[in-house]
Design a protein that fits this description.
The complex is a heterotrimer. By secondary structure, chain A is α+β, with helices and mostly antiparallel strands. Chain A has helices spanning 15-59, 151-154, 196-217; strands at residues 65-72, 75-78, 88-94, 100-110, 115-123, 128-136, 160-161, 176-178, 188-190. A 7-stranded antiparallel β-sheet of chain A has the order 2-1-3-4-5-6-7. A two-stranded parallel ribbon of chain A has the order 8-9. Chain A is elongated. Chain B is mainly α. In chain B, strands 1-2 form a two-stranded antiparallel ribbon. Classes of the chains: A alpha+beta, B mainly alpha, C mainly alpha. The interface between B and C is medium-sized, with 13 and 15 residues.
Amino acid sequence: MSTPIAPIPPQATPATSLLKTLGLVSTVCGLIIVGAYQGTYDAAAANRRLALERTVFKVVPAAKSMTEWQATPQGIRPAGGEAVAGAVKFYVAYDAAGDLAGIAAEGAAKGYADTVRILYGYSPACQCITGFGLVSSKETPGIGDKIVTDKAFLANFAALDVKLNAELSALANEVRAVKHGSKANPWEIDAIAGATVTSRAVGKAINDSAQRLLPRLVPEIEKLRKKES
Amino acid sequence: MSEIAQARTFDEFMEGIWRQNPVFVMVLGMCPVLAVSVSAVNALSMGLATMFVLVCSCGLVSLIRKIVPKEVRIATYIVIIATFVTVVDYVIQAVSLEIYEALGAFIQLIVVNCIILGRAEAHASKHPPLTAMVNAMGMSIGFVIGLFALGAVREVLGAGTLFGFSLFGPNFQPWVVMVLPPGGFIVLGGWLLLFSALKRRKEVRLAAQGGGHGA
Amino acid sequence: MTVQTEIRSAPHIKGPRSVEQIMANVVYSLLPVCAFFVYQYGISAAASILVVTASCLLAERAFVRTGTQAGSLSDFSATITGLLLALTLPPGFPLWMGVVAGFSAIALGKALFGGIGFNVFNPALVGRAFVQAAFPAAIATYTPSFLPGRFTQFIPSSLAWPLMAPADTAAWLKAMHFDALASATPLAKWKFEGTLTAAGDLLTSLAGHMAVGPSPVLILVCGAYLALRRFMDWRIPAAVLGSAGLTAWLIFAVGGTKYPDPFFMLFSGGLILGAVYMATDMATSPVTPRGMWVYGGLIGVLTVVIRYYSGLPEGVMYAILIGNAATPLIERITQPTPFGKGASIRARKSASYTLHPDYISREEAGAKTPKKRFFKNKPKQ
């Protein structure tokens, strides 16, 4: 037939019907989301704690348990309660006997691709860094990510000196990465040849974080000697 | 009768896997395909997450297809899809934090994966729930296959491993470019080349057969 | 029998010169350079040249056969790609990686675009860029030239098993009493250690155990042969070297001791090889004379900028690839003005001397030239 069919005028759906449908769908979806959140909350929290513990225990090898603290300008105290401006979070790790095994804290600095976030272990006994682990980085695979695999580079962190100066106000010597093969002092990091930028980022991350944390932490380190039961 | 129905269901299922494979034929949803296919595990988990979202939301969309007014259908579909993406987000966090971090923002970005909205709009809103879900299942299996094909090649060349197991021993020389974004494009290009070559071959053969019959 | 009449646009008179002839001459002119490379690094270099070129030829053959690209093996273009690619790779580059480089040069650099004459980027540099991205460590591992046993033994990294990491050349060099610095290229030494190599030594490549490519002097001589026989346009190398030298000199004059002198910049790395043989690739460089100057100038400036201000010690490769990418645009804005259509007519109108009216056609005398901006001779759609 060649008679053109007149287009059917679109029927306007009443607003109440639209609202009803949207309301119904939103309710169902809301219920699904709440259910999923409740169902997975415990497992997800446990996962996150485990991941954090794993990293902390890696940089403080003797550790068996840990607690979270924060260092405020007024002194250190366990984490929780209201947030204080300028507080630095750190983790206190204890060994099996409940003695202080070490301190772990997070540091971050700009690397080659993006911010390199690391967690480093601090040993109060030798006043030095005893190791570090990567929290997140987007460094070039095969080059920048050598910082966690290169044996010579990791050897820098066997005992990286972070002693405080006499007034306990800052580090006695700034931690920094130096060109490959020119490490002369215990507070210098021998950079990986070809990954100098990332190596420097690790040095800067440790330095920035230690400069803020240690002057507050070291005077009160006695508070942390024993694990509170 | 039931045989025809079965055959049709099977057709619906195979459509996404082969004839309209979302990765190799329709080239849809390339953003997660290129970004997370660095390793086979990442690719598979991304594929499974998408599968869950796709099947569930197609099912739900199909269930309510008769009561949703035309004016608000897109809004409704997006709410439904976003819901299931949120669920997947929580579930992955609970299952493995490592995978969650490796996939990063791409889990949340499943919401805007055009395969899902496309299926909801083009198929699920016009078919009964079972057909819609079977079709969605086929589509997402096709998507998983595509992701896995990319992820496996990139992991084997980029790290010398498959699912984390070393294939070539400790002395393997990784191809750094394969885990970088250009590697994703190159491998995808290689697969597309292979598929279009296969397709053309089939067409040539069919044409030859058809010509023979005609004569 | 029908007589085939071919109707085609100008040019109707062509020189007695074919693609094959030009390409063959480029290959001949490259042979002394390759010989010098082998003289410097021995059988490792010879094997590298052979393997890379063979893999280029095989890839070319495969793609021509499957109908993916036009051309044939006998046009020598794949041979040139292979030889140039081998010359840009370190002599101890693992041979299996050389195969990867050769294959990707032809596949990604040439077949993808449809074969000879259609490629947008220089295929040899595409191959090099691919392996640089894939194997950044291996491509930065150089060895000193003129090692004592170079004609009897391979550099250990050359003979790595396929897919396996190459052997450590540092230990091998140590056994021959070379320190770690001996295997750094002059550019890397300058960038990471701050030591300069004398420009005169770089010019001949003959002074001691340096990790350098074939002598720039030799490359210039071979290039001069091509330029004199008009197989290559002299403008591009002149523009590249001129602008690189000028930029380096400017920075040197302003920045002083922090930066190396312009002669070091010119003769180190692959700048001369790139300027003479790679930037001049016919399919990927502009055809307009003014465009050649722009193109060469761009490459020269980019090279110096990348060398000075990026994380990489060498920038010739990326500079030329960027230049290749800019070529269509450069050609568009540097179209020569067809005879009689230039700005000169307008200028003459306002000039004080009067043209004899007989010389000007009527239309032209009264013609109003529409105002044109920027793209003076935009090709008609």
